[in-house]
Amino acid sequence: MTDISQHESDLLKSYAEASGFRLGWAKFRKHKLAVVSLYIVGFLYILAIFAEFMSPYHHSDINRRHVLAPPQVVHFVDHGGGVSWPYVRELKSERDPITRRLSYVEDVETKHTLRLFAPSEPYEMWGFIPLETRFLGISEPKRGATMFLLGTDTLGRDVLSRIIRGARISLSIGLVGVALSFVIGIVLGGMSGYYGGWVDTAVQRTIDFLQSLPTIPLWMGLAAAVPPGQDPIVTYLMITVILSIIGWTGIARVVRGRFLALREEDFVLAARISGASEIRIILRHMVPSFASHIIASLTLSIPEMILAETALSFLGLGLQSPAVSWGVLLKDAQSLQVISQAPWLLIPGLAVVITVLAFNFLGDGLRDASDPYGKT
Amino acid sequence: MQSATSMTSPLLEIANLKKHFGQSRGLFKYDPHAVRAVNGISLTVKEGETTALVGESGCGKSTAAKLISGALAPTSGDIRLRTRDGTLLDVATLRGSARKKLWRDVQLIFQDPFSSLNPRMTVRQIIAEPLRNFGIARGEEATMIVADLLDRVGLQSNAMNRYPHAFSGGQRQRIGIARALAVNPRLVIGDEPVSALDVSVAAQILNLFQSLKRDLGLTYLLITHDLSVVRHSADRVAVMYLGQIVEENTTAALFSAPKHPYTHALLSAVPSHREKEKTRVVLPGEVASARNLPTGCAFHPRCALATDLCRKVTPQITTGSNGSRVACHTPLDEAST
User: Model ipTM?
Assistant: First the structure.
């Protein structure tokens, strides 16, 4: 009996002394979809960071003998019917004698077992760490032994490896772009909300103007200003700047809204009457109250950036081959003929969909958690 | 602790205070449709007394509280506060961080105990905020003072590390009171301090006000629409209607013999267990807009006793015998109530 009441009072104490962050985290964990999305997003970023190690092949290795090869299935049951270690079967190409069209069939006799930390040709991680092991591969590499889990493209490059490598640009462009928009958005939005008056009017009309511009023609115009044939890194940075020029408006609106709402809160007036300076009111009383809202809206604007980059590159306005991003990969799937022959070239689109959905659910959960004191 | 003479000396003097909203700036651009929220009030708050400012919603009493507490700048008029070092502070002209001098002596208790405490700060941080900002105490010393203040407002010192979400409305209001008391103010303005609370909790808070006044020699300015609160705690009452004070008197005199027809109607609206003996005065029409005030007496369209004079000439507030003040051409005498 005393134990139970002791336990209860401990619980009560921990609730009473729980900070806003802890209450928010507790609320976030109730949003199952958001928690799953958090894991998915985390997994995707690990893939992107360790792309060289995680991909089974180098993203630009060309296999002339395996052009437009279909995805190879991982088998768990061998030809005889017994359970086996996961393996793929060797692909044999056949050319139709009449149409001269190349097609592939699995050779049921030749097994290539898979293993984790498989040996591979030497390569360099991040350009300076020499490695001879990849996360997944064929245990005994020999001529003709291939593992194209998502098929190959028109030059016989492994689609899976290219998606993983493309994640590095596609996922980081969202972060870099959002970081840039965040800086512009929080400064202009904060000034707009805090000072009001003509500053507010000027910033808001600028936002109205930027948001009224049709995005694709604007991108085209700006992308035309990016000199072609540059170092991919420069193009990449230019693209993020272009995306941020539009992207900051949403964040500025959120920041301004929070400032306006908080300015009228009694506790801000109370802080002022308690003698707090304006700087202290902003940093100590207002910012902690809207930091979580900002994080949530930032999370929701990352997928917009990813989609924008994909669209730009798909239209040929953004990054160009040999740079690898999901948009660049999808550009390969532009022709109807290629898609009808090799539908697996659309799989990078699936990666975009999964990422965008995961970010949206994550942002949704963060938004719910950002106001732990409100009603559920 | 206080001598008898200083107890009755004026702590706060307000003269012809005005606040008009939406008025365009510039000397010659007077906006005739500005909202005249506070339209020339004069009031003296004596040290050690509880003065109540009553009126219905929209009469400008909360705006008056904001003007006196320095949260809003008045359009015109004077507010003079006698500070703790004996000098007169011209509150109406204070701007920006100069107002810190005012807040050292005047503190505000808010109506809504839920929005007036920062949800992301612990009780200790909330109450220690004025201690820190006014350079009174920091660290360990501040914690000691916070514990003492919590004890004074009837909370346990283990409340210190908790966040506001763990407290009820009444407890939060006590935290707000502790914060207001932290600077040891001379004047505490309560802007509807109990109207968001249950009746029983409100009574406890009002009793807390009484005992704090006794122990600390505080002066209160209570802004309220609740006449039972006024009767329970105020020494003097000023009744506001459409931005002006229409009557001011001691609580006892005002409740027993209201002179202004509006006060009379207001008092008759209070439910009584002796309902049959009372005749309730029902005012016709609605409160006029503060954007478009009637000519003459602002109350004349609803007044049963209005004359032509009332319709044309605005009555000035006049001080009668025994210090009562009324702004009416046809004040009620004691026989007619």
Answer: 0.85
CB-nearest to B112 from A266, A274, A276 is A266
Contact A16, B166 (CB under 8 A): yes
CB contact under 8 A, B104 and A277: no
Digitized pLDDT (tens) for each residue of chain B, 337 residues in all: 344 444 468 889 998 998 888 755 555 556 667 788 888 889 999 988 999 999 888 888 889 999 998 888 888 889 999 888 888 888 888 887 788 888 989 999 999 888 899 988 999 999 999 999 998 888 899 999 999 999 999 998 888 889 898 899 999 999 999 999 999 999 999 999 988 888 889 999 999 999 999 889 899 999 999 888 898 889 999 999 988 899 999 999 998 888 899 998 888 887 766 656 667 778 887 888 888 888 888 888 888 888 888 888 888 888 887 778 888 888 887 544 4
Is the Cβ–Cβ distance between A351 and A163 less than 8 Å? yes
Q: Where in chain A is the domain with CATH 1.10.3720.10?
A: 37-50+162-370
Q: Which of B68, B72, B129 to mutate to test the interface with A (most CBs of A within 10 A)?
A: B129
Does the distance separating the beta carbons of B165 and A373 come in below 8 Å? yes
What are the domain boundaries of chain B?
4-105+185-336
Beta-carbon contacts of residue A103 (< 8 Å; ≥ 6 apart)? A93, A94, A95, A96
Residue whose entry in the numeric block shows the structure tokens 């509880």: B50
Radius of gyration of chain A (CA): 26
**B 133-192 residues inside an 8 A Cβ radius of A:** 133-134, 161-163, 165-166, 176, 179, 182-183
Phi and psi (nearest 5°) for A154? -65, -15
Cβ(B235)–Cβ(B50) under 8 Å? yes
Q: What CATH number has the domain spanning A37-50+162-370?
A: 1.10.3720.10
Cα separation of B122 and B110, whole Å?
A: 18
Looking at the complex, report in whole angstroms how far the Cα of residue B173 sits from the nearest Cα belonging to chain A.
Answer: 13
Token pair of A151 as six digits: 């098929």
CATH of domain B4-105+185-336: 3.40.50.300
